[in-house]
Design brief:
Nucleotidyltransferase, domain 5; binds beta-D-glucopyranose; six-stranded mixed sheet; single chain; 7 helices; 2 domains
């Protein structure tokens, strides 16, 4: 089954058509910068452009960088505050003319990593997946089950929101060397271990392609891995989420 996955981020919206059985992207990845200010209608318009460029007509899965319940955003850390209370699914549907299913971006990236990526072998463990990008996204799995909308990117470290110290964007914004940034990340990982005690930590996001530059500085009790799907996980996982929602709807229609 083919589904369009869209990964909405603070810096860009990315999309591709995904074969949800194999977890493979079937088209090139379209990337369009997030419009200045990250306002709902502007971002929905960009989702419309992705659909148009891929000539897509069908279900869309969407990973959105906020707490998302039943398609509605409940927070907005790196997008405009007017997203709070907005149905991402309905608004994107309006602009794409396709049914849209939305969940938190890190949660859906987690689905993809657990099924097709670095998490595959750790189904029976407690796995913490981190997406390091504009913010820090977190997804926590226990025996393959996700506890949705865990916002551990916002714990406080040294009086600051953790993602304002250790996200990938902070490294670029503050022009930190990988070594210096890794010190912040190490401190963050120590907090995560103390609070959550995961068996495995998987780190993804665009920065994961440069892992050789920062992994040597990181030390954890948990097994520390780099996401194998890297920045494709958000797109693949978004498509997987739509598939799950469609199957649930189908099953409840049957019963
Ligand atoms: C948001 C999360 C999101 C993460 C990664 C954070 O600022 O609060 O919901 O998963 O960024 O995009």
């Amino acid at each position: 089954m083919e589904i369009l996955g869209i990964d909405v981020g603070g810096s860009a919206l990315k999309g591709a058509i995904v074969d949800v059985q194999s977890g493979k992207m079937l088209t090139e990845r379209i990337r369009i910068a997030t419009p200045e200010g990250g306002k709902p209608e502007d971002m929905a318009q960009v989702a419309g452009q992705i659909v148009e460029q891929l000539n897509w007509k069908g279900p869309i899965g969407c990973g959105f960088p906020a707490v998302v319940k039943k398609g509605v955003a409940f927070s907005a850390a790196n997008v405009d505050k007017s997203w709070i209370g907005t149905s991402v699914s309905d608004l994107f549907s309006k602009y794409t003319k396709c049914p849209v299913y939305t969940a938190n971006d890190a949660d859906v990236a987690g689905f993809a990593e657990m099924e097709f990526g670095a998490g595959r072998e750790y189904y029976n463990d407690v796995v913490l997946i981190l997406t390091l990008g504009t913010g820090i996204g977190t997804a926590l799995f226990s025996e393959g089950h996700l506890m949705p909308n865990m916002e551990f990117g916002h714990i406080e470290i040294r009086g600051k929101d953790a993602e304002k110290r250790a996200s990938a964007a902070q490294r670029t914004n503050k022009k930190l060397s990988y070594r210096r940034w890794a010190e912040h990340l190490q401190e963050y990982l120590e907090h995560m271990e103390a609070l959550l005690n995961p068996d495995v930590i998987i780190m993804g996001g665009g920065i994961s392609k440069d892992s050789d530059k920062f992994m040597p500085y990181l030390h954890t009790r948990a097994k520390l891995l780099i996401a194998t799907l890297q920045n494709q996980a958000g797109i693949v996982g978004a498509a997987m989420y739509a598939k799950q929602q469609l199957s649930t709807a189908e099953n409840s229609a049957k019963s």
